[in-house]
Each structure stands twice: as structure tokens, then as C-alpha cells.
Design a protein that fits this description.
The complex is a heterodimer. Helix content of chain A is 0%, strand content 60%. Chain B is mainly β. Chain B is globular. Classes of the chains: A mainly beta, B mainly beta. Chains A and B meet through β4, β5 and β10 of A and β5, β9 and β10 of B.
């Protein structure tokens, strides 16, 4: 099976940088994904990592270390609209199924 | 980017009736579609994986006779909740995998089902 851990909630200030961590235990996966979900809406894709290292996409970056079972999502220049839940998900090896963590609810304050 | 639609966005039905939810990939061919449900303040739970032209694969604990999935074409999958009960009230979300980009799943906007 797979186990994914994320902090339940975080608060950060507008304009700041925030790092959301995700640790996992799994017997195998093809990639680690990050999704953003606003309340009552479906998730939207942010980024994914297949190999170790940092992937940068504008204000969002994601990092993966397979040896440490660890990933993080970095959000820069926070905006109020970034207030949402951020879901870490493992892509199944060979199946492309996603197993989601419980999500981290980020609140951006002025 | 790829677009996935769901219909209806909200539905209220009475106990014992059946409800059909449609999931369509609008501008790409989806060889695989996934159905999730999400309870308030909880994460998404995969219910089943639907491959075009074949039977769906259900996750453990999901009743296949209650949640009927049909993936009749490369752009359409349907989920029918049969004999709905109040405990089936949830947010149902589909996603589709583009055969040209196997790593990324595109999510529909979700369907809020309320069973009274």
C-alpha cells in the first residue's frame, strides 16, 4: 500500500514564500504530483516530478527525493488567490492511478 | 490545455432512485478515465478506473453493482449511482488521461450529489 503525509493546515502572508512538505511510503510509483483544489471545485494540476530534483513552473516549484521519500511544493510571491488545499499524490507504477494525500489547507493572509 | 467536463454539476435525488453522471474529454482522446469521490474536508478517494471498451476496475470496498461505470467511447464515461441512499451524498469527480501524455490527469469540475 501507499501512505502519504502532509500537514493539515498552514498560514502564510501575502507576498511571502511557503513550502508545503509531503512524505510518503510506497513500494513503487511513477511520479509525484501536486494539485491545487479550491473549496467545492475539482483539483487543478500544478506540477509533477518523475526524477529527483527541482521542477520550476513560474511561482510554483516542486522537489522530489526518492531516497528520502520526500517532496515539497514551494509557492513564491504568495497571492490571496493561492488560498486553497494543496494535494500531494503518488502516481501508481504502471497503472497511472493517483493516490492522494489528505491535502494541506493553505490560508494566505494580508 | 485539455478540458474535461462533467454533467450535471449538481443533482438532488430521492432515496432509492438512480443518478447518472457523465464525464467527457472535450479536446483529447482519453483511453483511461478515473472516478473519485470526496467527502467534506477529506481527500479524493479513487473509486474505479475505466478503460474504453472494457470493464471498469473497482477499488476495494466499492460496490460495482451500486456504482455502474460505462466507458463507451474515447471521450465519454458515465457513472450511475443506483438505488441511491443519503450516505451516497458526496462530491464525485472524474479525471481523464490523455494517451499522448500518460503522466497527467485532467479533472472534471465535479458533481455534487445530494440524496434526500
Amino acid at each position: 500500500g501507499q501512505n502519504i503525509d502532509q500537514p493539515t493546515e498552514m498560514t502564510a502572508t501575502e507576498g511571502a514564500i511557503v513550502q508545503i512538505n509531503c512524505t510518503y511510503q510506497t513500494s513503487g510509483f511513477n511520479g509525484l504530483f501536486w494539485y491545487q483544489q479550491h473549496a467545492g471545485e475539482a483539483p487543478t494540476f500544478l506540477s509533477y516530478n518523475v526524477l529527483d530534483g527541482l521542477e520550476e513552473k513560474g511561482r510554483f516549484s516542486s522537489f522530489l527525493s526518492r531516497s528520502k521519500g520526500y517532496s515539497y511544493l514551494l509557492l513564491k510571491e504568495l497571492q490571496m488567490k493561492d488560498s486553497a488545499s494543496y494535494l500531494c499524490a503518488l502516481g501508481g507504477a504502471g497503472s497511472y492511478q493517483l493516490t492522494f494525500g489528505k491535502g494541506t489547507k493553505l490560508s494566505v493572509i494580508p | 490545455g485539455a478540458v474535461v467536463s462533467q454533467h450535471p454539476s449538481r443533482v438532488i435525488c430521492k432515496s432509492g432512485t438512480s443518478v447518472k453522471i457523465e464525464c467527457r474529454s472535450l479536446d483529447f482522446q482519453a483511453t483511461t478515465m478515473f472516478w473519485y469521490r470526496q467527502f467534506p474536508k477529506k481527500s479524493l478517494m479513487l473509486m474505479a478506473t475505466s478503460n474504453e471498451g472494457s470493464k471498469a476496475t473497482y477499488e476495494q470496498g466499492v460496490e460495482k453493482d451500486k456504482f455502474l461505470i460505462n466507458h463507451a467511447s474515447l471521450t465519454l464515461s458515465t457513472l450511475t449511482v443506483t438505488s441511491a441512499h443519503p450516505e451516497d451524498s458526496s462530491f464525485y469527480i472524474c479525471s481523464a488521461r490523455d494517451r499522448g501524455d500518460p503522466y497527467e490527469q485532467y479533472f472534471g469540475p465535479g458533481t455534487r450529489l445530494t440524496v434526500t
